[in-house]
Design a protein that fits this description.
Its EC number is 1.3.1.12. By secondary structure, the chain is an alpha/beta fold. Helix content is 46%, strand content 15%. It folds into 3 domains: 161 residues, NAD(P)-binding Rossmann-like Domain (Rossmann fold, 3-Layer(aba) Sandwich), CATH 3.40.50; 103 residues, 6-phosphogluconate dehydrogenase C-terminal like domain (6-phosphogluconate dehydrogenase C-terminal fold, Orthogonal Bundle); 67 residues, 2-Layer Sandwich (Alpha-Beta Plaits), CATH 3.30.70.260. Strand 10 and strand 11 form a beta hairpin.
Amino acid sequence: MSARTTGQVRVVGTGLLGTSIGLGLSSLAVDVVLDDVSPATLALAVDYGAGRPTKPADAPALVVVAVPPDVTADVVAAELARYPEALVTDVASVKAGPLAALEAAGAATDRYLGGHPMAGRERGGPIAGRADLFLGRPWVITPHAGSRPEHAAVLEALALDLGAVPVRLAADRHDDAVAVVSHAPQLVSSLLAARLVDAPDHATDLAGQGLRDTTRIAASDPTLWVEILSANAARILPILTDLRDDLDAVLDALADPSARGARRALADVLAAGNDGVARIPGKHGVDLRTTTMVVLVDDRPGQIARLLTEIGELGVNLEDMRLEHSPGAPIGIVEIAVAPEVAGGLEADLRGRGWRIA
C-alpha cells in the first residue's frame, strides 16, 4: 500500500508514540527522520526501524512533536523556527494549553495544528512501540482560528496511513472530552489499584478478570501522568467532585443497607453504570449493543484459533472478544460479543460442533 503522507516526516521524541508513528510510516516507505534529547533512546528507536537519525540537510514537510506535555509548546516553537516551510503538529494529550502558549509567544501558529491519537499502552519507551498501535483508534485534530484547511488534510492523511480514524474537535472540546474518558479514569483506576498494596495474599490470589480490567491502566507511568493531569486539572476536578458525591451516596447506603431507600440508591448507581457502558462506541465507532457468550476452551495449542476459524465459517462477525485464563487451570474462557440477532444461532451451531458454552 502506498502512503498518503508525502515528503519527509520528522519525529521529535522517540517514546512510545513517536516510535510507533515512525514504525508505521517507515513500513510505508516514508522517509522518517528521528530526534530525541536522549541519544540512547534515539539509537534504540533507530535500531527498531522507526526511522533514521536527523541530518543537517534534512527538510521535513511535516514535523511530529511527541514529547511530554510540559515541554510540548517549547519544542513546537523551536521546530516552527527551525523548519520555516514545515507543518508542525504534536501528539500531546492536552491541546488548549500548548496552543495558548504558542500564541502568547508569537510563534507561527499558522503552521501549527495540534493532534492527539487516542492510543497508548501501559509500557513506555521505544521498546514498547508498535506499528499498529493506532489501528482503529480516533486521532483528534484540533483546528484553530489561525490554522489552514489544507493542513488538516495533511494530518488526516497521516492518521489514515497509521490506521487511525481522524476526528476534528476544537482544543477546548477535546480537553473536556479527554478529562472524562481518559484522565479521570486513570485516577480512578490508580486509586482502586492502590487498595491492593496492603491487601493480603489470599485476597490478591482470588483476583479475576474484573479486577484486571478495572486496574489495567493503573500500571501507567506516574511521571508522565502527573504532567498530563496537571495540564488538564481544571477540567478533571469537577468530574472527580461529582464522582465523590456519588461515592458519598454509596457510602451512606452501605452504612445501613436495610434503611429505607438504601437499596434503591445502590441500584440507581449500578443502573447508571449500565447506561454509561452502553454509550461507549463499538468497534465501528457507533453505539452498538451486543450479546455476550462465554466459550470454555481446553488449554491446548490451537484451540482459540480453531474457535475463531469456525465462527468465521459460520458467517458470524465478532464485535469484541476477551480472554481469561488462570495459571494451572485446564480450561480458558473466551468471552465473545456478537450482534443480538445472530447470538442464538451461533450458540446452537457452536454446541453442535462440540464447543462448551457457559
